[in-house]
Amino acid sequence: MAACESRAGPASQRIRLKVRSSRFLLSAGRPEDVPELRLPRVAFAGRSNVGKSSLINRLTGSRQLARISRTPGRTRQVNYFLVDERLVFVDLPGYGYARVPSSMRRSWGSLSEAALLKSGGVVLTVLLLDGRHSPSELDHLMVGWLTEKGLEWIPVLTKIDKLNLSERAKPLERAAQLKGSRRGLATSARTGEGIAQLWKDIDAACRPHQQGDSPNRLRAAE
C-alpha cells in the first residue's frame, strides 16, 4: 500500500493519503488504439512540462508510475493507469511545444480528443496550469473545447511550492477567472500541498459512475 503525507498549509490538519494499488495499464498512440473502458476515467491535460507525470505519481504515492521527462514534448502517447482497481488515470500528451512538427501536434490533438470522448467521455479533466505563469492561449482554447463538449474540468495549479504565500493569490485568481471555472486549486508534487483536496474532487466525480461505495482514500493521521 502506497502512502504519502501532505500539509495543505501551516494550520491545516495532517492528512495521510492511501492508494491500495496503482499500475500501468496500456498506451495508445493512435485514435483507433484508444480502448473502450467501463471504469470511470480522470484525464490529466496541460502544456508540455507542466508536471502531469509528477502529479500523477504524487497522487498514487508511486515515484515511478508515470515516467517523468525533462524534455518537453517527449510524451507522444496517451498513457492509462489503473488505480485501486476502481478508476483509470489518463495521462494526455502535453500541448504547445513549438519544436514538435505541426503534423505531429495535429495527430496528438486527434488522439487526445478520442481519449477524452470515447466510452461516454472522461468523468473529470484535471487541467494543469503552471502556477508561475498566466494561462496561455492554448490553455484558453482547451477550456473552450472542454466546455463545448460538456466535459467536467477543474483548473489545478502546479509547482506552487516555487511561489511564496504572498505570490499565490494572483495565479489562483487567474485560474478562477477561466471561462466556466468553479475555482482554482494549488498543488505541489514536491511537498504534497493540495493533493488531499484534489483526491476529494476526483472521488466526487467518480462516485456516481462506480458500483458500490467509492473507496475512502483520505484518513486523518493518527
Distance between the termini: 17 Å
CATH classification, class level:
Alpha Beta
Helices, by number, come to 5
Q: What is the helix content?
A: 25-40%
**Shape, please?**
globular
Return Rg in Å. 16 Å
Class by alpha and beta content: alpha/beta
Output the CATH homologous superfamily: P-loop containing nucleotide triphosphate hydrolases
If classified by CATH, what would the architecture be? 3-Layer(aba) Sandwich
Q: How would you classify the quaternary structure?
A: single chain
The biggest beta sheet reads: 7 strands, mixed
Contiguous uncertain segments of 5+ residues: 1-16, 213-222
Give the total of domains.
Answer: 1
Overall average residue pLDDT: 82
Proportion of residues in extended strands: 15-25%
The name of the CATH topology is Rossmann fold
Write structural notes for this entry.
The protein is α/β, with parallel strands linked by helices and 222 residues long. The chain has one domain (2-211): Rossmann fold (3-Layer(aba) Sandwich). It contains five helices and ten strands. It has helices at 52-60, 102-117, 137-148, 169-176, 195-206; strands spanning 2-6, 15-19, 22-28, 41-46, 78-83, 87-91, 124-130, 153-158, 185-186, 218-220. The strands form two sheets. A seven-stranded mixed β-sheet has the order 3-5-6-4-7-8-9, with helices on both faces. It starts with a strand and ends with a strand. 39% of the residues are buried. Mean pLDDT is 82; it is low at 1-16 and 213-222.
